[in-house]
């Protein structure tokens, strides 16, 4: 067992460039993750829920009463309809509709109808309505065979979802290609048939998933039909003496289809890598300016998927030092489809939240990058392209602060104007940075000093033991989810955030890393300790 890094060790790691940690140790015998898996080792992470706080948090850390039902549980309990789904959930009932309209609404602690918000993949289901005995529209249109997860929040959620969540929230998440495709498996086909004796019902479903590193697709087709529920009555006459069930036929069909090419490209960046970092000043723009030395470094880095929904993907990078076996939380990248807002570096230690123009965000993904403390760095917006079969994402021009490799050495500029480009390659992926080093003056004028090209090359590897990284994330992921929730309070809406730390941010980085270390040691860290750090070092940005 590797010891938990000391505060000094963390400080020394963070003193190196933010995008690199020297990988100068000689390669020695190591147990690869694949070898660990072959030996039966597993990494079980805490269950994460999103609906209760609209941010990903460990289930145990959510203040509300939340139920999370996954696909495995649905299959184990032979769930066929909403009543089956919530059969064993206290405080949740599904009513039977009046007349011949099947199931009614979902009630949470007695409240139902349009006072319970129902959404599918984040999109609200239309309200139920009734304009007569035979004109009733319920909200039970979901086909459970198309779902991979259901989350239910018991109790009022109006502060987050509006007045239609007085009773609570029911959130359905549909399946996607990644639920069926694995490494080395680029196609899946499944078929199932069933019979329900209670109503002489038949159901069938066919599922096809296909894709690879650059795109993927899914088609799920379902059909079910049946008759009235049988009873023991034998009198089929009309009128009050009738005991046999009234005749009733039902027939339902559903289709779930989608192509997740962009999202699959983003998810293709997950994995284990040996990374090389190179930065070179190219074009010199001011008289007397001398080209600074090129920077070369590298490291061992694993990219873990923290959140994966149809419109948002969060990837966490974690460094591993082969010599010591220490794992260090590194940078994070969040991808949001058609983001309405994003933060932008506007002044020293200040990031303002601004709307993304509709013409820029339409059909595009916004990538936001965060440093080791989950403090903001920069955002960029652009569309994925696939010309000649090459998956590439290129951002618009945006601002960012000085990188860690520079601000301890340079004072002649204070901002970078940059365009980013991510490209998937046969052996991994690359990150190109087209930077312009700029001195932004108090009067609003700008002086461009030099242009720089940055090239980060992520090469897949099976030669590095990343077990310490997975162990670290297993112990601390719930904690960092709480940290991200605090940042979201500043960056999820205007005006933004201002950091009161020095430019290196160490005054905030160190206490957060120390708290994470306490969790590695088996100790607890309460919300009050995290809040104290944020109260001391973060405040709303000034407009």
What do these coordinates show?
It is a single chain. The chain is an alpha+beta fold and 543 residues long. It has 3 domains: 7-30 and 263-540, no CATH class; 57-175, Ferric Hydroxamate Uptake Protein, Chain A, domain 1; 178-232 and 246-259. The chain is built from 11 helices and 31 strands. Strand 28 (428-440) and strand 29 (446-460) form a beta hairpin. The radius of gyration is 27 Å and the shape is elongated. It starts with 6 loop residues before the first helix and ends with a strand. Mean pLDDT is 84; it is low at 1-42.
Compact description:
With 543 residues, the protein is of the alpha+beta class. It has 11 helices and 31 strands.
Question: What labels would you give this structure?
Answer:
alpha+beta; Ferric Hydroxamate Uptake Protein, Chain A, domain 1; 3 domains; twelve-stranded antiparallel beta sheet; five-stranded mixed beta sheet; 31 strands; 17% helix; disordered N terminus
